[in-house]
Design brief:
The chain is of the alpha+beta class and 522 residues long. Helix content is 29%, strand content 30%. It has 15 helices and 33 strands. Strand 16 and strand 17 form a beta hairpin. The chain binds guanosine-5'-diphosphate (GDP). Belongs to the TRAFAC class translation factor GTPase superfamily. Classic translation factor GTPase family. PrfC subfamily. This is Peptide chain release factor 3. Keywords: Cytoplasm, GTP-binding, Nucleotide-binding, Protein biosynthesis.
Length: 522
């Protein structure tokens, strides 16, 4: 089972501009996955198709699609799952975090914890995902290190352990001191990047430090680092793995400081694949049976073919090409002849994959987000949530003869988790729900580009929605009275559309026997 022990499946969480893209490139570069730090490429036709689709990404300077990048170093396989970095959330982002065993939180040294970092952190906390913190951009002016550390501890209610310490920031930046290995990393050349210049010391009082650092720099390093080592909890691997403590690495993704230490930390401390919540019982990675779950579906990488890729996280067993897996609860066994592994340079056909790996399964719409796949069809992974939409809109067709295409398109996109679609009990106009504004733009642009359906969005008289469950008689009473606000989701589950969050509170008090859920497990 060493293949499993040697895997680290993780995501980077951050606020836009904190440096996630830069850090990703450097991780891949140092991990030897790419020869030139740059964009992840797709092949031939797929590349052209993708580039059209990516127009919207370029226009807005953001990454809408997320992907999987794999790199190896010193016998460890790292699977980095990219999460879209824009302020607008999609459910994709949340769900991707259900497929990782740990996360790296990148924060900007000048800005500290920002709103999106915080939201993503909360999702990690729900699942006790352990977090390594990378405080980026120490080559720039920023806050005092103590202020940064205290903010992480206070806002996120975590213990913090500084593992490295920058010598000065911005104009005063002289290097990074590794508090664990007692090494000093120094900048070189006019760009003042880290190019491998390391001085091994015996500790903070080593006189070698006085030779290479300025008098002010070394004095402050000694004073601060000593204070930090007594002021913060020592590193505790168990507390980290339980999600109660975060080791903090200071660095500069742009100038390559701290990136190596970060990879080292992931290799040494981050957990290998963990047991996954499932029914009838959690699935340990050591189980022989091949099992996994689909956390993301990406359609139409090539608009000429309605093909899709289902991204499956392998949870147990050794997957072999050609193997048959059954989606639990629906459908026949599927023989997986051309699974895809996502190496950074290119997509590659996988022959074998291990727990913690992500494989892409091409299919024509049979696989859906939340699906469990297994050899025997005997388990079901739980905990992949649908989130209550925060924005609801009516879809208005410009050409009424396109109703069928519209339904098909909305169904497809609901399946991918781009949007949710609701079928109102009264009226013919479909209602779509999203978690963030960006998803609306994606929807309209894809309707036109891929399905040739011109449609507009109109305000709906509703703002949010809740899944309703409860005793059938009480539920019927509720739905009869509120018929104008009732709809069905794609799977036929009843949904109450509310004019405001306040209304949700109001009706849930009036109908104590009906349960109003903001998430629905699939
Ligand atoms: P993302 O939005 O989180 O993916 O952030 P990017 O990686 O695109 O970085 C945002 C901006 O910050 C870019 O202009 C980067 O060049 C810059 N940047 C990223 N890391 C560093 C760093 O360590 N030092 C400095 N000075 N700039 C950085």
């Amino acid at each position: 089972m060493t293949q499993t022990q040697d895997r680290r499946t993780f995501a980077i969480i951050s606020h836009p501009d904190a440096g996630k893209t830069t850090l990703t490139e450097k991780l891949l570069y140092f991990g030897g996955a790419i020869h030139l730090a740059g964009e992840v490429k797709a092949r031939g036709q797929a590349r052209r198709a993708r580039s059209d689709w990516m127009k919207i990404e370029q226009q807005r300077g953001i990454s809408v699609t997320s992907s999987v990048m794999t790199f190896e170093r010193e016998g460890i396989t790292f699977n980095l799952l990219d999460t879209p970095g824009h302020e607008d959330f999609s459910e994709d982002t949340y769900r991707t975090l259900t497929a990782v065993d740990s996360a790296v939180m990148v924060i900007d040294v000048a800005k500290g914890i920002e709103s999106q970092t915080r939201k993503l952190f909360e999702v990690c906390r729900l699942r006790s995902v352990p977090i390594i913190t990378f405080v980026n951009k120490v080559d720039r002016e920023g806050r005092e290190n103590f202020e940064t550390l205290d903010e992480i501890a206070d806002l996120l209610a975590l213990d913090v352990t500084p593992m490295t310490w920058p010598v000065g920031l911005g104009g005063q930046f002289e290097g990074v001191y590794d508090l664990v290995g007692n090494r000093l990393l120094l900048p070189e050349g006019p760009s003042r990047e880290f190019q491998g210049k390391v001085i091994q010391t015996t500790g903070l009082d080593d006189p070698k430090l006085d030779e290479v650092l300025s008098a002010d720099g070394v004095a402050k390093l000694r004073e601060d680092a000593e204070l930090a080592m007594v002021g913060y909890a020592p590193f505790d691997a168990t507390a980290y793995r339980n999600g109660d403590l975060t080791p903090v690495y200071f660095g500069s993704a742009l100038k390559q400081f701290g990136v190596d230490a970060l990879i080292g930390a992931l290799a040494e401390h981050a957990p290998p694949p963990r047991p996954q919540p499932a029914e009838p019982e959690p699935v340990a990675p050591t189980r022989d049976e091949v099992t996994g779950f689909v956390f993301k579906v990406q359609a139409n990488m090539d608009p000429n073919h309605r093909d899709r890729i289902a991204f499956m996280r392998l949870c147990s067993g050794t997957f072999k090409r050609g193997m048959k897996l059954t989606p639990t609860g629906h459908g026949k066994p599927i023989a997986i002849h051309s699974p895809i592994l996502f190496f950074a340079q290119d997509r590659e056909i996988a022959d074998e994959a291990f727990p913690g790996d992500i494989i892409g399964i091409p299919n024509h719409g049979t696989l859906r987000v939340g699906d469990t796949m297994s050899e025997k069809g005997s388990v079901r992974f739980t905990g992949l949530p649908n989130f209550a939409p925060e924005i609801l809109r009516r879809v208005a067709l410009k050409d009424p003869t396109k109703t069928k295409q519209l339904r098909k398109a909305l169904d497809d996109m609901a399946e991918e988790g781009v949007t949710q679609v609701f079928y109102p009990e009264i009226g013919a106009n479909l209602v779509i729900g999203v978690v963030g504004q960006l998803q609306l733009d994606v929807l309209i642009s894809r309707l036109e580009a891929e399905y040739k359906v011109a449609a507009g969005l109109e305000m709906a008289p509703f703002e949010t929605a809740r899944w309703v469950t409860g005793d059938p008689a009480k539920l019927k009473e509720f739905t009869d009275i509120n018929r104008a606000a009732m709809a069905k989701d794609r799977d036929g589950n009843p949904v109450f559309m509310a004019k405001s969050a306040w209304e949700v509170g109001y009706v849930s008090e009036r109908y104590p026997d009906v349960k109003f859920a903001a998430t629905r497990e699939r």
